[in-house]
Amino acid sequence: MFHVGSRSTVDLEEEITPEEDIVKSRLKEIPHNEKLLSLKYESLDYDNSENQLFLEEERRMSHMGFRCLEIRRWVICGLIGFLTGLIACLIDIAVEELAGYKYSAVKQNIEKFTEFGGLSISLILWAALNSAFVMVGAIAVAFFEPIAAGSGIPQIKCYLNGVKIPCVVRLKTLAIKVFGVICSVAGGLAVGKEGPMIHSGAVVAAGVSQGRSTSLKKDFKIFEYFRRDTEKRDFVSAGAAAGVSAAFGAPVGGVLFSLEEGASFWNQMLTWRIFFASMISTFTLNFFLSIYHGKPGELSSPGLINFGRFDSDVSSYIPFESFLFFPYYFPGGMLGALFNVINYWLTIFRIRYIHRPCLQVMEAMLVAAVTATVAFAMIYFSNDCQPLGQDSTEEYPLQLFCADGEYNSMATAFFNTPERSVRSLFHNPPGSYNPLTLGVFTLVYFVLAVWTYGLTVSAGVFIPSLLIGAAWGRLFGILLSTITSSQSIWADPGKYALIGAAAQLGGIVRMTLSLTVIMVEATGNVTYGFPIMLVLMTAKIVGDYFIEGLYDIHIKLQSVPFLHWDAPPTSHWLTAREVMSSPVTCFNRVERVGRIVDVLSNTSTNHNGFPVVPGKICGLILRSQLIVLLKHKVFVERASSRLSQRRLQLKDFRDAYPRFPPIQSIHVSQDERECMMDLNEFMNPTPYTVPQETSLPRVFKLFRALGLRHLVVVDDENRVVGLVTRKDLARYHLGKDGLEELQLAQT
Amino acid sequence: MDLSAKFTFVIACWAVTFITVADCAIYPSETSGDSARKLPSAVIPVSQPSTLGSFYSLSLSSTFPEDLNEYCIELLRIYRQRYVAYANCLVTYARPVKVCQNCYTGFNSLDGIYKNISSDQPGPGNISCHDSLMRSDRLMLLYALFNKLDEIWTSAKCKQCLSKDQEALSNDTVYFMATLNQSLSCFEQYQRNHTELCKDCKASYRKLKELYGSMDKNQTLCIDLEDAMNITQQLWSKNFSCLLPREETVPVIAVSSFMLFLPIIFYLSSFLHSEQKKRKLIHPKRAKSSNSLMNIQDKFN
């Protein structure tokens, strides 16, 4: 039995007593690397504890009651969709306004100084504005909620996998996330606002479904039935789907994203509800944005990113052209792998050396300043001038040294929010960019994007990947049309930009089904489905040959005990006996309070589940349950004297969820320590057990499919010999020389 | 391209035969459009205007009992005249574009007769020509012809250059023309010496640009002004090459390289001075002789 980890609200570090310190110092210390499992992560309790309280409650509940529950689930999903859509809308409008203000200020300044000299001042102004925005965002993230950094997709993946990441679905995280993303996009970093939407949606879902906020200390006394990990997980997957749907205007893509990331726990009704949430979310966003754009009812922006329309007849797509896209399949995977490798080393460096918040803020500011500088230098030295078109999408055309009536083409790529740049790469007419501009842009943006991802700001990687891909895709399209030289169907480089964008994104994140559907839905043209699918498939195969996807890398580097789909191959010879933790701390059916308090207080063995014995296994009781019992002082000796008092109900356990008080906050007097506690009523009487000889893959399958937290290993006579937990299973993985074992570490 | 287009055409037609025939029709129209572009000479002779006589002689309708009445024929005649006049004007002032200034009377009169025909008000003898002229066949030629020209007029935004009643040029337009002429005459003056020109005409050119910018904001530009401005800009930037000099390369490079230098210092200093984060390894409780990596390796071999 082995599940060590700080309970959510306690900080382990503070409680280390001197003598434990000596023990700790004897332990080996190594620099952070990817082959570690952190102790701070725990499992979620997906397994329902079928104790007597539960059975009683079920008996009391009428048929009507269960119907109402179902209706409530639908209402919650609707609310999740609505709120997620609103948040997306807020982000979009805020970014638009702030970026608009910034770019028009810089543009005015540049125009003024182009004529009279002093352009280096404009450069400094631009860099300073960028840094200022990013600084505010980075301070919020680094000092108030570090978990809000990055896109949040790895964290949500872990959550759906069954890992409890501290603070990941709190209201505070949501607030910081939204604020941070607005700052970092407005600050001109090479990031997008799409990834964080998924995290935001998940937080909204976790909050709404509980009917209360522990951060705000407000309990609406609704949806109390759903205060359990199992129910919450279902809603979080709906929230993630709603987030994807709002980010890309892709409701089906959102559902498939949840399916792909959390598919081990799935059923048909849940899928249907998730789809409902996704639809509501994209519709809400669309509706409110149409009001913002002054055309209420004209539903033209279903997502945060809008790829614009790809008309079938204009950019006619022809079957055999998808084979011509063929050379394309490889750079996507290779460049994606390169991106991931560089980012991997950078992230390790960051974890090891740049771990202090003030350093993190400084780094983010530096990146912002350098981004502006590089962009400015590119624009300054670019000689690519293009005439201003009547239907040009350029919001802030910069003339600089171009002839009057023309604009600097490099500026359309750099002097813009990344989403707009993607759109202009997709849709600007042929000839809007010259190949040199695109080549340089791809290179520079690649470096900036690699460097930016992993900073302590909340920001996504989708848009920069799309932008890099679109740039080299368009370059490829232009080269192709010069080779074939005839004014023909190849002439439209926009669709090559689209395919390139898909290839690059697929090469970096390695999502398959959901990404294809997201891309198809975002372009709104099913005919592109086939080439996009081929491209993503190849990108994944080629990329996986070198390194895993970006999100998996970051999950690994966070030392999360993540369970993949299957146990590592060649692990059948390992049996439960070798995998399990042993010996196990057990309790008796009627246990002395003093012993329970002592076991729970022992920080060196921070266990979470305790088999109940004597002799044969009779049940399993969780730390959270014991704490609630101690808090309510449910002792055998008191039972007679307090007959008038009501009995403990399941509701009492739910009220404490999800932040159970730490054991230290519960006061147990010397007298009470001698009391006895009857666990029969509260323990789960039928925990899952396996015999000692069960192979690892078998244990793994049981664990993964049922979402277990503890699996008791028993001998022939049903006596407890060990306990398998998530970290026992997650430590095996396939390395270069066969099976390797990850080490446990305190982080 | 031909080969591929034909290939697709065949494939596409084969595929959609039983769905719809209309889909197929899209593809041949593409190819035929291409070939038409290659043979412009074949198109020209067709546009010979037919005389009134040939109109009658060709017309089979004279044999029909339900003939057009005199009034409608008269309307049709006026429409023809005004149409020709207006189209003539458009082509005459196509390059450089001066259609708005010169053709607004033509457009107004054409618009008038078109409205007259299309109105349902009965003329003398209680006859409405709307149905008989405009809607008796599927071609609806009068409608299509007018529609095209109206579209051109709209996309040229000529209304924005005209006064409220569309009868004269607006004051803004006249003022812009005057300013433009100032600049052009200045250009004329310094035709020889471009460096002089760039210096001395700058004031008037800048004034023109500012005026243009403000008119752009007020939505009082039409194609005439846009085109005139475009040509002037090209004269200024391309012909006289009055471009802004790129003089500040050194300071820009200096500031940029300073900025690029900062992260290097930052990373170096944090690498050297920041304490490396160490992780404390924990040894979990295991059943005897089972958990070390050595063991796995042993068992593997």
From TrEMBL, chain A:
InterPro entries: CBS_dom, CBS_dom_sf, CIC-7, Cl-channel/antiporter, Cl-channel_core, ClC
Statement: the UniProt record of this protein carries the keyword Cell division: no
Protein family membership: Belongs to the chloride channel (TC 2.A.49) family.
Example of a GO cellular component annotation carried by this entry: lysosomal membrane
Protein name: Chloride channel protein
Topology class, membrane: Multi-pass membrane protein
Keywords: CBS domain, Chloride, Ion transport, Membrane, Repeat, Transmembrane, Transmembrane helix, Transport
Any one GO molecular-function label of the UniProt entry: chloride:proton antiporter activity
Residues that span the membrane, as ranges: 74-95, 123-144, 174-192, 235-258, 270-292, 328-349, 361-381, 436-455, 461-484, 496-520, 526-547
SUPFAM superfamilies per record: CBS-domain pair (SSF54631), Clc chloride channel (SSF81340)
Lineage: Eukaryota, Metazoa, Chordata, Craniata, Vertebrata
The keyword Transmembrane helix belongs to this UniProt entry's keyword annotation: yes
Pfam families: CBS (PF00571), Voltage_CLC (PF00654)
Xref: CDD domains: CBS_pair_voltage-gated_CLC_euk_bac, ClC_6_like
UniProt-annotated location(s): Membrane
Domain CBS: 683-741
Entry-linked SMART domains: CBS (SM00116)
TrEMBL record, chain B:
Signal peptide boundaries: 1-24
InterPro entries given in the database record: Osteopetrosis-assoc_TM_1
Keywords: Membrane, Signal, Transmembrane, Transmembrane helix
Taxonomic superkingdom: Eukaryota
GO cellular component terms listed in the entry, alphabetical order: cytosol
PANTHER family in the record: OSTEOPETROSIS ASSOCIATED TRANSMEMBRANE PROTEIN 1, OSTEOPETROSIS-ASSOCIATED TRANSMEMBRANE PROTEIN 1
Protein name: Osteopetrosis-associated transmembrane protein 1
Protein source organism: Cyprinus carpio (Common carp)
Taxon lineage: Eukaryota, Metazoa, Chordata, Craniata, Vertebrata
